[in-house]
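Hello,

Our lab assistant flagged a job as stuck in the queue for most of the afternoon. It eventually completed. Since we weren't sure the result was trustworthy after the delay, we are filing this so someone can double-check. Below is the sequence as submitted and the structure that was eventually returned. Let us know if re-running is recommended.
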Amino acid sequence: MGGLPTIKGLDELTELVERRPGLYLRYSKGPDADEGKPSVDYESGLELPGLSVTVLDTVDDSVVEQAREHYEKAFDAGRDSTG
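-- returned structure --
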């Protein structure tokens, strides 16, 4: 995978975003797991073009809540977090 950071906690995420605002955050098992799989909108179930990401400029309560919500939807639904 080389070069793609793995974020394992809020402190790491905050530090990374402070260094690099405008960061694209994707919840995924990595490029190999994403290859050939579409992103899916959790609300509608529609397939989306490209890969879904969250753009982070700051880490505040709304970003934390958005990250938590996306994580829970992806993993609690039994998905491999490709959506």
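-- support follow-up --
The delay was a queue issue, not a problem with the job. The result is valid. The chain has three helices and four strands. The first helix runs from residue 10 to 19.
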